[in-house]
Amino acid sequence: MNFLTAMTKVGIPRALLYYQYYPMWRTFFEELGVETVLSTPTTKAMVNSGCSRMVAETCLPVKVFCGHALSLVDKCDYMFIPAIRSMGKRAYNCSKFLGLPDMMKAVIPECPLILDMDIDVTNGKRTLYQNIYSLGRHFTWNPAKVKKAAEKAWECHLAYYQQMFSQGLTPTQAIDEIFSEKGVGVDQETANSSLTLTVAVVGHPYLIYDDYINHRLIHRLQTMGARVLTPEMVDEEVLDVAMTKLVGNPRWTYEVDVIGAGGYYLEVKVDGVIGVIAFGCGPDSVMMDMVYRKAKRLKAIPFMCLTLDEHTADAGLVTRLEAFLDMVKRRRREQTCV
Question: Counting beta carbons within 10 angstroms of the beta carbon of residue 25, is it exposed (0 to 12), middle (13 to 18) or buried (19 or more)?
Fold first, then answer.
């Protein structure tokens, strides 16, 4: 029995874990013969619509996600919003990821059927495979087809991360290279040849790559003369080692994006490190504080933390970036003169 029609579409919001897993998700659905519909980059209208549906205490990333989901309501037959509980042994996700499908069902009653696959690797491979097959059964009863789609998706995921690491690409650049026929990748050696400083930006991808909510942070740093490094440009095993040195065993999923990357870049002596967190996020505040304490102990690398919310203005952010880079340049000149 075939459940698909020529118009079957699955919506994927361009927010939260999109930056980590979009190539894998898209490959899985396309291998099953389903068209994926991606929301546009974040806009003011999206943020406003998301804020209008969520309570004020909700963190900015979830409000943004809600806005993206709202923009897809009339464009798809299904909405893919997985509940990702854990991606590592004894390491658990923030509650916003655990309850995301239920939140969206509650605040967007007009939403099409939500595919709320549960992902928790601590339950073992058997349970994970069963959940994958349950997701695939919305579109086919053929388990071999679902298995092949899952294998192709995992291969794409591994290639995606290898591409970012080997070529020094951000997720947005790597996604463009994978799915764009025009080949819009950047020649990193050429792009960085005229830049005088090296600044690492650490934090969750949904903060450091969403150009609307961070006011084009990476682009602004580059126009100010800084070569920007991000967590994806380092091998994951190296980040795991750096994280273990700083905090031991992780307690939160994706600690490597903050603690691992922050600890690594402080050790390799970049010119400066900028941490990005969301206002009101407890796990982010704790993790970034650990990076700050290490920077304070080393007394070698300037560190700045940027806190974002829906009220953050670009003027204030630009002023802080200019002041930070001026300090970094002055420190570098002093060290050169010694």
Answer: buried
